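Example (one chain per record):
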Amino acid sequence: MPPTLDIPVTITDFRAWEYGENIELEFTLPNKTTENLSLTNVRAIELRVGEDVAQSQVIPLPVSKPGNVTDRIPARDWIGKNIVLAVRAVGPKGKSSAWSNPVSLAVIPPLPEPPAPKLESVAKGVELNWTGPGPRYRIFRAEGDGQPQPLVDSEQPRYLDESTTYGTRYRYMIQTIAGANQWSLLSPSAEITPEDKFPPAVPEGLSAVGTPTSIELAWTRNTETDFRGYNIYRSVDNGPFEKLASLADAPAFSDSKIEPGKKYRYTVSAVDLTGNESAQTAPVEAVVQ
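Predicted structure:
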């Protein structure tokens, strides 16, 4: 049998993008030769980079074993140019694979790293604000000690994250982006644990109707997901308001503890699951018929 050639299989998943001051590289080095034999090591990995194939430079990269490979080169020599990059592996006998899939990249001046965002817990979630020249931003979020994941892109230096949960710790980072492959470094992280300090809306449409034996109250039901119940307050003959009922479920109440000839006033507030209470409604008045 003739000696094997040990030519590495061509790399087919080469990626390159601008990240801060560098051009980041990523690809998978196959573990097979073109003769379908195992490949455990290579002699060299070469990067071809330039505005066209004829004027390309070949840059040696650190040798790696088969598997996922990441590396970087400085972007400074290519700023303002449209370049094409590709990689190949040199087998243990000095024979090279074909060049990988080419990647085109427009190299721009490094995008500035944004500052850490300012975070505020608001009724609808977590509000983020930061500064930066843009043109666009990518927001990353991590829950607890987890890894940051892309959350959303924004054209403005602000965002309202409405997908948060009270009591969960979040970390946020911002990245400036100019295109699909032109990114700044991630900003420093900012951390927040939202707390529910926000009361429900004040109940609306409160009415009071007197009957011979009771005064019937009714109002519009609250729609908050964390709603718990209503507190009902009563004033007799212009006296101070006192709590008549706590955490009533329904948007209605029948007050049968009444006396003829007295004037009754009522207000209602809403309470959520953590005990936050809304302001009271404007008073309504009724008398026994």
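Caption: The chain has a mean pLDDT of 95.
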